[in-house]
Write a structure and sequence with these properties.
about 260 residues, mainly alpha, 2 domains, three-stranded antiparallel β-sheet, 10 helices, about 70% helix
Length: about 260
């Protein structure tokens, strides 16, 4: 009986780990529950999951022995990683098709957990090029392009630095947007004929919380109103952080509007 209880606890811990990886990587609630239920069925357990933005609670019942357990896991900071979501989705489908057992699932999840992010410098360069490119798309010139590239690069670098220091996510976003917009306007101040409006607006686009807001919408549509509301407020606070940073820069440089 003790062995069965321990195995049920191990299964619960594994499912909590999968849930945590999905939530912090940016998966919506429906996808999380779908993947968890697939793995739970293969382990021959019934899983009941309570999802919160900061923690998960999972209750498992072993369908063969009747053993039950409930565990709680506090979630680490959220960092969007679509590679993790994709890998876990593919693993759940393959596990369902091939009939994986607990040990096989555990081995696969351990491998996925070790997947590395893209190179930090590649991310900085790519995001900066994207932001600068949007500046051109919205009507900016090549001077603005260069200013936005440098501003975005330094702003994202700042935000990553604060995240690594475990700063509050909203403050990290504020300082990242502040540095990005401030550097962009400082560069453009050497070119008085260039209109700074487009450059200022596009310099903070890397901070826009698209994933939380999109997940909030999908959660509302799927009927997960509490989780959707939390995600919406989470995204809204990021938007307020960006707006506050822009307000500071516009006030310092006496920019009337964007």
């Amino acid at each position: 009986m003790q062995s069965n209880k321990r195995l049920t606890n191990d299964m619960a811990e594994l499912l909590l780990k999968i849930s945590s990886m999905l939530m912090t990587s940016g998966a919506n609630t429906n996808r999380i529950l779908m993947i968890i239920n697939k793995f739970a069925a293969l382990m021959k357990v019934d899983a009941q999951v309570f999802i919160n933005h900061k923690a998960f609670i999972i209750s498992l019942k072993d369908m063969e022995t009747g053993g039950m357990t409930t565990l709680v896991k506090r979630l680490p900071p959220h960092i969007v990683n679509f590679n993790t979501i994709s890998a876990l989705s593919k693993a759940s489908k393959k596990a369902e098709n091939d009939g994986w057992d607990y040990e096989k699932i555990k081995q696969k999840i351990t491998k996925i957990e070790k997947l590395s992010f893209h190179s930090r410098w590649l991310t900085l360069f790519s995001v900066s090029i994207a932001g600068a490119g949007l500046c051109i798309v919205f009507g900016g010139d090549y001077i603005s392009f260069g200013a936005v590239f440098i501003g975005t690069f330094l702003g994202l670098f700042t935000r990553q630095f604060f995240h690594k220091k475990n700063f509050n996510a909203y403050l990290a976003t504020f300082f990242g947007a502040l540095v990005s917009s401030f550097i962009t306007i400082c560069i453009l101040s050497f070119f008085p004929k260039v209109n700074p409006d487009i450059a200022l607006a596009t310099s903070v686009l890397f901070s826009v919380p698209g994933v939380p807001l999109l997940n909030a919408f999908t959660d509302f549509m799927d009927g997960y109103f509490i989780t959707g509301l939390v995600r919406f407020i989470h995204g809204l606070l990021f938007v307020i952080s960006i707006a506050a940073a822009l307000f500071v820069v516009m006030y310092l440089f006496k920019i009337q509007s964007i």
